[in-house]
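Title: Prediction job returns without error message
Component: structure pipeline
Severity: low
Priority: P3
Assignee: unassigned

Description:
Job completed but the reporter wants confirmation the result is attached to the right record. Sequence as submitted:
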Amino acid sequence: MHSQHIKRQPRYSIKSLTTPELFQPIRTVATQLSHRIVLAPLTRLRADKAHALGNLAVEYYQQRASAPGTLLITEAATIAAKAGGLDHFPGF
């Protein structure tokens, strides 16, 4: 039996790196960003024993936000003690 090869169009394409959109400015509802790189919510496990953030967390995010036009979505947090379970995890 003879098999035929069907040529399909790719579902994605690779753009040239000479003009990457990642480094182009973009306007959001609230602000103009200098680029399209965003720091997603995360935790650095820098909360105190009561799970509250302090000066160490403030310093961490100030360092990362020092470039104008940078978007940071800061500090993931738990909603209940059962949901976290880690020392120095912020929340509840």
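Comment from assignee: result matches the submitted record. Residues 39-92 form one domain.
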